[in-house]
Amino acid sequence: MIRLCKSMDTDVMYQIINDAAKAYKGVIPDDRYHEPYMTLEELKCEMNDGVVFWGFEEKNLLLGVMGIQDKGDVCLIRHAYVRTNQRNSGIGTKLLSHMVALTNKPILIGTWDSAEWAKKFYLKNGFKLVSPDEKKKLLNTYWNVPERQIETSVVLCDSKRPLDKISEYTSSD
């Protein structure tokens, strides 16, 4: 079952995120990977900054989490993670479908360029990669990430919701 995560879930969300993020070790640039991948304080800051987390739960155990953040013209999918021992079981697809159904706004997703499995997952689920120029504009407009992360990331958009209607994005040159 998919349910809204609450503050009482923070410790379990932290465990899921850092368990799943171990897949990045040796894949993303070494200067971008650290353990824990996301500290408990960073997770709490994300939640305080408007990232609303949803979880997939089975038998009272949270197996995966995914966040959505409203940024005015768009919504961002943030921090999509499934427990390592539950990967490839459909949990990510169920969570992503739920997130897409939560909004009519264009949806953007940022991920590491070298995380091929993540890009394949989003492409399989109806998202498309934006051009490198669009990526840079979008990351600078809707995310707060360092330049090094911009260099090593990609952005995907929901292929059913065009970006050309986004006023903030189209006016930023």
From TrEMBL:
Ranges of residues in domain N-acetyltransferase: 1-148
InterPro entries reported for this sequence: Acyl_CoA_acyltransferase, GNAT_dom
Domain of life: Bacteria
SUPFAM superfamilies for this protein: Acyl-CoA N-acyltransferases (Nat) (SSF55729)
Protein name (database record): N-acetylglutamate synthase-like GNAT family acetyltransferase
Phylogenetic placement of the source organism: Bacteria, Bacillati, Bacillota, Bacilli, Bacillales
